[in-house]
Every structure is written in C-alpha cells, then in structure tokens.
Amino acid sequence: MRVSIVLGSLAAMLALTACQTLTPEERRARDEATCRGYGFRPGTDPMAGCLLDLEMDRRADNRAWQAQMNRDMFYRPVVVERRIIVQQNP
User: Fold this and answer.
1) Rounded CA gap, 88 and 90, in Å?
2) Origin, by domain of life (predicted)?
3) Which of 27, 35, 49, 87 could form a disulfide with 22 if both were Cys (CB 3.0 to 4.6 A apart)?
4) In this predicted structure, what is the pLDDT of residue 19?
C-alpha cells in the first residue's frame, strides 16, 4: 500500500514538472539558438529581425488560441425548442 502511494506521488511530481512554462530568459535562449540554427550571427540586425519574427509568431499563435477559446465559450449554437401539443377533438 505504501509503495503504491509513494510511486503515485512520484509519478504526479514528475508529471507536474513536465508542465513548467519557460522563463523569459529560457525563451530568449531558445529563440537565439533557433536563429543561430538558421544561420544568423549574434549581434546583427538580421538576428534581431529573426528574434522579432519569432516573438510576433508566438503572439499571433496566442491571439489565435484565445480567439478560438472565446468562440467555443461564447458563440456556441443555441437550440431553442418549443413543443406544440395538438389536442384532438372528440
């Protein structure tokens, strides 16, 4: 019983550590590595443009995601049903 609790707790901790968000410094380092991979040299104007493009793409993705969430939440189709009961004459 104790072993399963310990293993379950360990699995939960590992799952939660995988869900961390990047700090701004980590995001910048990844962006710089991506731009260097594209062939840009650090400290140049094209490198700055590459970093800016990556940030703008990230913001556009975020706006698109937020718009999709808003559409799903607020603009779902509304089904209005009105039942009509017809009585037969005897």
Assistant:
1) 6
2) Bacteria
3) 27
4) 66
